[in-house]
Write a structure and sequence with these properties.
The structure holds two protein chains of two kinds. Chain A contains five helices and no strands. By secondary structure, chain A is mostly helical. Classes of the chains: A mainly alpha, B alpha+beta. Chains A and B meet through helix 2 and helix 3 of A and strand 3, strand 5, helix 10, helix 20 and helix 21 of B.
């Protein structure tokens, strides 16, 4: 290859070299800016989601307290003495043994009582959040440098 | 021209580069300065918050799912002293708290302005405030914030007021079944007496300490803490209420000092009710010392042993029949007195009853006859049977505070030969009512004695575990049990006892025991009136024990405890859907 073919035009038009450098510089700048912008966006979204999680956790706790309160109120309204007094007001009275009439109903099976259990169902330990959702770019880079074996095993 | 500006460009580039470099140097310097370490430490302190998660205490339900103990939300109200100082709202807080909660204005101002510890950040002012009152204060606090945002109103605020919600134990039935349930103290959260005391650990659950990241980027799911175990009792709420009413009425009618009624399923040991006096409103457990003189009064059915009197004769007769000492038709000539261990034992009325078979001995409750029966049996056999019936031992009922009572055995320092005779009719032996009903279950239940229990099942992590049937022993054979059942049913029928219930064949025995005064003897004139009975005789579904202490309207069990038994049975069969014998046998025949 004739090198003079490359050098000569640059000597004749030096602005070409400068323009190339500027293009490279701007290209690098745009790439860095894009990475920074994406990183910022991801971090901001993660922060917003994290805050939402915290708010939901607070809402769950609050709802549990409200539920317990409502359940206690219902139990109080349905208590024996309360129900007795309400029944008496509307004209009911306790049945006596000689007032009961029994009818034989073939095949009748009395229903089982329903226990209004309101406790939480414990599902063991909650699944750990994968590190990809919590670590920053720098954290990930740090981890990559510090434990390459772990990473390679993870990839396999 | 280019050369003219070339050096200027280089100077500007150099200055900018130097500036950039100095910024980098400064950044590195700041990052590694001693102050940076302090700031990092402060940041770390706030990065995570330690939080203790207390599981909700397990609920308690009756056998039909009616809540007997639950939790409600209450608030601790306090002030953030730093914020109060910044916003200078001490007067406003004191005013609102005194208006809403009825607290003393001056005391609040004093405690906020002069906190007990210097540099205190948070000061609690009131606890266990109902949600309704706390909500009023929260709304007020929001109103002040809205006014401040709109620039209206004065500078008053409730900015420093903080609300911390937590659970408080609540008992919707107040006094109902209080002797069975027990209570939980507020501050310590410890269960006392009954189910709350016996199952305190399971009901309370396990508290968990967690570190909660404050950085939303590091937000994680807070570990789920399982609630305390939920308990389903064998208690039937409506029957419990009805039996408590019957007991209260009986105490008033017969002018008795106190009383106990137990209703149990003799086939499974499931306790339907334990009504005892006095009772405590569990939502006001702090009145405990005003209601009880000591702890064993909380549930007399399991904690207060007493001399049962003639109801004990069913155990003596069961032992005698089972050991072959007597037969139902064995004839005894009652002369009105018998000497055992050098002491003379007489009948309850001091009279001679002539020739009696064993049913007659039970029907007329003849002490002389039963003392003769135990003497014929011999001390070794008699006390062996009493041990088999669980007399003098804990029944193992799942309620806190059970006591064992005492029966003296030959060889004990304080046992005398006369006690073989007196024990036979329930004198000189201390039993609890729960022991007697457990022993009675053997006679009602084909010889199999069941362990009484109050917990039907537990719900943990969404799974229900039912309490298995526990047979406490087989002290007598099924044929002995059937024979004695017939004898007891016949004796009630022949004497036209007030314990009889129309439509249901029941078996049972009354008891009237003079009360022993230590070092004085049976001189008080007061009695313990008792009745043990069960039915239907051919397929027992309930066994009932009545104990009335010191009735004065009549001292006799046959006139006090026996009619109470009939009342309890009438309620039990209606509420437990037990049809009359005729209907039941009609269904069984199909």
């Amino acid at each position: 290859m004739d090198i003079s073919r490359i050098i000569l035009p640059n000597k004749q038009a030096p602005w070409r070299t400068r323009r190339q450098k500027i293009v490279w510089f701007l290209g690098a700048l745009i790439a860095i800016t894009m990475v920074a912008a994406i990183y910022l966006s991801v971090t901001a979204n993660a922060a917003i989601t994290g805050r939402e999680i915290q708010n939901l956790q607070a809402a769950i706790s609050s709802n549990q307290l409200i539920n317990a309160d409502l359940e206690a109120s219902i139990a109080s309204l349905l208590s024996t003495r309360e129900m007795e007094s309400r029944a008496e007001v509307i004209g009911f009275q306790p049945i006596k043994l000689d007032e009961v009439e029994y009818i034989v109903v073939p095949g009748y099976v009395p229903p089982e009582p329903v226990i209004p259990f309101n406790g939480s169902y414990f599902e063991g330990r909650s699944p750990a959040t994968p590190p990809e959702y919590t670590q920053s770019l720098l954290d990930w880079f740090n981890e990559l440098i510090r434990s390459p074996e772990t990473i390679s095993i993870g990839i396999q | 021209m280019i050369k003219q500006f070339g050096w200027r460009s280089k100077v500007v580039a150099f200055i900018l580069a130097a500036l950039g470099l100095s910024i980098v140097v400064q950044m590195v310097r700041i990052q590694n300065s001693p102050e940076a370490e302090i700031f990092r430490q402060i940041a770390n302190d706030f990065a995570v918050a330690s939080r203790t998660i207390y599981p909700a205490r397990g609920e308690i339900f009756d056998r039909n799912g009616r809540q007997l103990a639950g939790n409600r939300t209450v608030y601790e109200i306090g002030v953030n002293l730093e914020e109060v100082r910044i916003y200078d709202d001490t007067q406003t807080i004191a005013e609102e708290l005194s208006k809403t909660l009825g607290l003393d204005y001056n005391e609040i101002v004093e405690s906020i302005t002069h906190p007990p510890i210097e540099h205190l950040k948070y000061l609690g002012l009131a606890d266990y405030i109902p949600a309704s009152q706390a909500n009023i204060l929260m709304e007020k606090q929001n109103e002040y914030v809205e006014q401040a945002n709109k620039g209206k109103g004065n500078s008053a605020s409730l900015a420093g007021l903080e609300f911390t919600a937590h659970y408080q134990r609540t008992y919707p039935e107040n006094e109902l079944a209080s002797n069975i349930i027990g209570f939980v103290t507020q501050k310590e959260g410890i269960g006392f007496f009954g189910i709350e005391g016996e199952y305190d650990e399971q009901l309370a659950g396990t508290k968990v300490e967690v570190l909660v990241p404050q950085d939303p980027n590091r937000a994680e799911e807070i570990p789920k803490v399982p609630d305390g175990t939920t308990l389903i009792l064998t208690i039937h709420r409506e029957l419990q209420a009805a039996v408590e009413d019957i007991l209260d009425e009986a105490l008033s009618k017969y002018d008795a000092q106190s009383g106990t009624i137990i209703v149990m399923d003799p086939r499974s040991g499931e306790i339907y009710t334990i009504a005892a006096t006095p009772r405590l409103n569990l939502n006001k457990f702090w009145n405990y010392y005003g209601v009880y003189n000591n702890g064993n009064e909380f549930n007399r059915a399991i904690s207060i042993p007493y001399e049962p009197g003639s109801v004990f004769k069913i155990l003596t007769m069961a032992a005698a029949l089972d050991s072959g000492t007597v037969q139902p038709d064995t004839i005894f000539l009652d002369t009105g007195a018998i000497t055992v261990g050098g002491h003379t034992i007489r009948n309850w009325n001091g009279q001679a009853w002539g020739y009696q078979d064993m049913t007659g001995c039970l029907q007329h409750s003849l002490n002389v006859c039963l003392a003769w029966v135990s003497s014929q049996m011999g001390a070794e056999t008699f006390y062996q049977y009493m041990q088999r019936f669980g007399i003098g031992r804990l029944t193992g009922i799942d309620l806190a505070g059970e006591t064992s009572g005492r029966i003296k055995f030959p060889g004990d320092d304080d046992w005398y030969p006369v006690e073989l005779g007196t024990n036979a009719f329930g004198q000189g032996v201390d039993v609890t009512t729960i022991q007697m009903i457990m022993a009675g279950s053997a006679i009602a239940n084909d010889g199999r004695m069941v362990t009484p229990h109050v917990v039907k099942g537990m719900i943990k992590n969404g799974v229900q575990y039912n309490t298995p049937l526990q047979i406490a022993g087989t002290p007598i054979t099924d044929s002995t049990a059937h024979t004695l059942n017939e004898m007891l049913a016949n004796s009630l029928e022949e004497e036209s006892s007030s314990a009889l219930v129309s439509g249901f064949r029941v078996a049972g025995k009354t008891g009237t025991a003079e009360i022993l005064i230590p070092n004085e003897g049976y001189t008080s004139g007061g009695t313990n009136a008792s009745f043990i009975g069960w039915g239907p005789v051919d397929d027992p579904r309930f066994i009932v024990y009545i104990w009335l202490e010191k009735p004065t309207a009549s001292i006799w069990g046959s006139e006090t405890a026996a009619p109470v038994f009939a009342q309890v049975v009438e309620k039990t069969v209606v509420l437990m859907n037990i049809p009359p014998d005729e209907i039941r046998l009609q269904v069984a025949a199909r």
